[in-house]
Design a protein that fits this description.
By secondary structure, the protein is an all-alpha fold. 75% of the residues lie in helices and 0% in strands.
Length: 99
């Protein structure tokens, strides 16, 4: 009997929590926009001393392109090695059966 009583309390709890969630969804939980303060503006401002460390789009694009090409070359090399080993194994099997 206690098991059924416990189950009904659990069901009531879920039902009430679902109603709370539905009610909270009706009212948006968004804050108003606040302008950043002086410290935040100073932190977001461009610093000329850090300009030499900035990664420029062209150099990043070239580096990414080089990485893509190297990845393709490595994958092609691995595929070629797998193919060569498979062909060599097949030839060895044929020679073993012929003898």
């Amino acid at each position: 009997m206690a098991f059924f009583l416990h189950k009904s309390n659990l069901a009531n709890h879920f039902r009430s929590s679902c109603q709370k969630i539905e009610g909270s969804l009706a009212v948006p939980n968004r804050a108003f926009h606040v302008e950043p303060g002086e410290r935040e503006k100073a932190l977001l401002a461009k610093d000329p001393s850090l300009r030499r460390f900035k990664s420029y789009k062209k150099s990043v694009w070239r580096l990414k392109r080089i990485g893509d090409v190297l990845t393709i070359v490595v994958v092609a090399g691995c595929c070629y090695e797998i193919y060569v080993r498979a062909v060599m194994r097949e030839e060895a099997r044929k020679q073993g059966k012929a003898e």
